[in-house]
């Protein structure tokens, strides 16, 4: 039952606290019930919380966002990073490379977890860094999964940096390549001696949730080894998608949500 009238701040905090204390991702109807508010009200507040990074939306379910993770180790236990960690570790062991987990934000991607082998300690892990689409494989893979309208903030940032969007060598052509191949390959654009390949994990509705990125010395991204890295990456994103789906269907709520 909805609680008595409260301020917008109260509503936002109720939702953040409900997500953080729950032992699994919640659907909208469950989250509204937990916070004691109408679903329509919860949905409106959640839009802003997702935009600001306090809550992460994964398909029809909600998890603690990156801002919450910076404040609460308890929330981190049930976070996307915690779910993805075994997949990152296995992918790093299989490829011998550094692997990171990125999520999309307003006009960039952010690295929220990293597994880095000791031999690659000289390569920056970029944890908590804001990565633009025109310089890194992770955001490129995420943006390729967005519809044209949702891509605009990312592309605007690239244009402001002087990056060409159109033409055979333009950023839109790179996005088209990712759409065809299912992964983004970056060699030498950000650092000449470092290469990376990334693949996004999407929700059931096709929106990007996160991306796994394999990073290592450029010399180790030659064929035939590159093909093996890409195969391992595709396998890993499949496992992560399955893990997120399993979480999402753990205890489905009755009825139909309005988001």
UniProtKB/TrEMBL annotation:
It comes from the Bacteria. The keyword DNA-binding applies. It holds the Pfam family IclR_C. SUPFAM superfamilies: GAF domain-like, Winged helix' DNA-binding domain. Gene3D superfamilies: 3.30.450.40, Winged helix-like DNA-binding domain superfamily/Winged helix DNA-binding domain (1.10.10.10). Keywords: DNA-binding, Transcription, Transcription regulation. This is IclR family transcriptional regulator. Residues 67-246 form the IclR-ED domain. It comes from Kitasatospora paranensis.
